[in-house]
Write a structure and sequence with these properties.
Number of domains: 2
Number of helices: 15
Helix content: over 70%
Strand order of the largest sheet: 1-2
Largest sheet: 2 strands, antiparallel
Order of helices and strands: HHHHHHEHHEHHHHHHH
């Protein structure tokens, strides 16, 4: 389960690498830094909610926007989106951007209605997610327009060096204005889904459950009796009790020991999986984003244009495709996916942030893309899942200090024995 959850994030980042490579034949080594910026946007979003430095972390997060307003706006977007999509099917000459906006309104409308009606406590998280995806998409536009586009006519080596330079610029330049030392992290209280879910794959024996259930009332009763006695007679002090207090204390400790022992035996019996709700939400969100990306690439005019540009720039241009716009759109989609992954990891796992936060995840996602077959979207997903499993197997084997090294080992093995990746293919080029 841990491998699947971690691999889903690697897969989401690997999709950004593989999409850009599929269109431009360029490894966007600044992709990890876009991921880092997405995490910082989520951090600043938590500050806006009210969980900045020195905030009261015991208070429940207040919604940034009133639920009623969100639902109303969502219904309006749903109607407008449906009208735009319907107009696109009736009028083939309608600009692609109108269709794209229509689909975006449809998705946002459905999402807003579902969140407002069924999960209002998730509203802040959804807004943080959209903010991270939007900012990262804009960063992707800036990187493509001012760093990669001027180098497009030059050699691939020049573009590769430019990508490394952009990565270093964002890493070190970001340290000048982003909080970096001490490393900040998103407050745990921002996440309302901190509870864990336990699924019993092989349930424990019924007698163990019955024994624990029979011991629980006595444990709770004796614990309450001790608390009441301490509160009434000794102001909560636990030591130096009179004989009567010692008797109540001993009964409570005996009942607690029996209950804890039964609980320990019950938890070790059978086979169960315990996962935080937040991490399950991460997995579901990643799957939804991947399904949306697959639909975009395979069943829309923009996706068809992306596939055409990936085959041949000149021929695509002769067919009426705006190559520059499609390349920019590819960067926007890939960067937005990275921002979504960063927001979820930083929020649900609470990892400290620095301007080097995206370095190792970026490298691992690149290895995942190479493992699956760079330029191949299903391969990126497969490579990310396998990377997550490999890393967790190393931890399970007791070598957690080598969890980061396994990515480089996999990269070397893939380049030696299958440089095209698991789902990639070697192409023959005419000289």
């Amino acid at each position: 389960m841990n491998g699947l959850l971690l691999g889903a994030i690697y897969a989401l980042m690997a999709l950004g690498y593989t999409m850009v490579y599929g269109v431009l034949r360029l490894i966007n080594f600044a992709h990890g830094e876009v991921y880092m910026l997405g995490a910082y946007v989520a951090l600043f979003g938590s500050y806006v909610i009210g969980y900045g430095p020195g905030a009261d972390l015991s208070a429940a997060p207040h919604p940034l926007i009133a639920i009623g307003l969100v639902v109303t706006a969502s219904i309006v977007m749903l109607v407008l989106g449906a009208a735009m999509v319907l107009a696109g099917t009736k009028v083939p000459s309608l600009p692609t951007v109108i269709r794209a906006v229509g689909w975006a309104f449809l998705v946002l409308g459905v999402l807003g209605i579902l969140v407002g009606k069924f999960q209002p406590e998730a509203l802040n998280l959804v807004l943080m997610l959209l903010a991270s995806m939007t900012v990262c998409g804009l960063v992707g536009i800036v990187i493509e327009r001012f760093a990669y586009r001027p180098m497009r006519a030059n050699s691939r080596m020049a573009s590769l060096i430019t990508a490394i330079g952009v990565s270093l610029l964002i890493q070190n330049g970001g340290a000048l204005f982003l909080p970096n030392s001490p490393p900040p992290s998103i407050a745990e209280a921002v996440n309302p889904y901190r509870k864990s879910i336990t699924v019993h794959l092989v349930p424990p024996a019924a007698d163990l459950r019955q024994k624990m259930a029979s011991l629980e009332p006595q444990y709770l009763q004796t614990k309450k009796a001790l608390d009441d006695y301490l509160t009434a007679n000794h102001k909560g002090e636990f030591d130096d009790l009179p004989p009567e207090g010692e008797k109540i204390k001993e009964a409570a400790q005996t009942a607690e020991a029996s209950y804890k022992d039964a609980q320990r035996k019950l938890s070790s019996a059978g086979v169960s999986v315990t996962v935080q709700q937040g991490r399950l939400i991460m997995l579901v969100t990643v799957l939804v984003l991947m399904i949306g990306l697959t639909y975009l690439v395979m069943y829309t005019r923009a996706g068809r244009a992306m596939r055409a540009v990936s085959h041949d720039f000149d021929s695509a241009g002769l067919m009426g495709i705006n190559v520059n716009s499609i390349i920019t759109f590819t960067f926007v989609v890939g960067s937005s996916l990275a921002g979504a992954g960063a927001m979820m990891v930083a929020t649900f796992q609470g990892t400290p942030l620095t301007t080097f936060y995206g370095l190792l995840p970026g490298v691992k996602a690149f290895v995942a893309a190479v493992l699956g077959g760079i330029g191949n979207i299903p391969g990126a997903v497969l490579g990310g899942i396998l990377m997550g499993f490999a890393e967790n197997l190393v931890i399970w084997a007791g070598y957690s200090e080598y969890r980061d090294a396994v990515a480089f080992v996999i990269l070397i093995v893939v380049l030696l024995f299958r440089p095209g990746g698991l789902l990639g293919s070697s192409k023959v080029e005419k000289v």
